[in-house]
Structures are given as C-alpha cells and as structure tokens.
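2024-03-11 09:14:02 DEBUG pipeline.ingest accepted 1 chain
2024-03-11 09:14:02 DEBUG pipeline.ingest length=177
2024-03-11 09:14:03 DEBUG pipeline.predict start
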Amino acid sequence: MLTEAGCLARRQNLWARLPEEIEWVLVGDSRHVQYLSNFRINAISFSADQKALLLLLRDGRAVLLADNFTKRSAPSPVFVTDEVVIPWYTHRKSVTNRDHALLQALGEAERFWKGRTGLIEPEGISEMAAAAVAEDAAWQFAADDEAEPSTLGEVLRSLRRVKLEDEVELLKYCMRA
C-alpha cells in the first residue's frame, strides 16, 4: 500500500513541475489517481471498469470525485482532504448513468476550480468532463519559452519513473509474494 506521506510527496513533486499559473489539475487515469492518492478500484468488484477523478489544488488539497459504489470498492485507505461522492445506487430507486454521476460530482466540486486556471489530463478525462471545465482548463502547457508543450499525463508518467520509498517497499512486498 502506498503511504500518505508518499502521496503528499508525489503531489508536491507534481506541483514543482507545473507553471505557477496552474492552480488546479484534474486527473482521471486510474494509475495516476492511485499514484497521487492511493485510491484504486478493486479489480474484481462491480465497479471495476468505472472511473474516479482526482482534483488537486495548488494549496495542497486533494479532492476525490466518485459515485458511492466506486468509492466503497476501494480496498485501501484513500489519502485526500475532501471527497465529493454522489449517491449512484441507493437501494431505493433506479440507477443513473455512472458517467453522469461523475459529472455531477465535478459540478459539486466547482467551488474548487471555477474561475481559476487549471490543467486536465487528456488521456484520463472523458470528453464530457473536459467540456465541463473547458472554460478554465488547458490540455497542455509550456513551462518556459524554450520548452516543448507538455501534457499533465506526460509529466505524471515521467514522475512515476522515479520511485519513492513507499513505492519501493510495495514493489518488494509484491516480489516476495
């Protein structure tokens, strides 16, 4: 299991690589959501093919966006400061489209991102979610005038190449198995 300290360090490393004008990022690739918050959907659960989003704010807050069934399928603790969890299945009425529930969560988290400059992970965000934040978000950035434009996904993949202590311990645990 990843640790809270490790997740916080990875988020700090991410912010160090992004331009100062970026105030929030929206992450959707499940590997990156886990990398930054330890949230991963149990692969053999009813929610296995569903998504959760992670909204990170430059001030250090991390917001998990999910439906209630997706959230409860996580086998490990989640290291976030806030959660917006939409009741998708309540045992009392028919379910809605789960993508719409995720969009509803994004809308309820609007106070965190609306009117601020953000960056979305193009490989992990649906077109509907991207459209919801499009006015305030960019797909790519240039760190300085000399740099090639980068995407959030490219930055995260490059950060994942360097393992922090909790990741090394997890790899050793898996190798012992």
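2024-03-11 09:14:41 DEBUG pipeline.report The chain has one domain: 4-176.
2024-03-11 09:14:41 DEBUG pipeline.predict end
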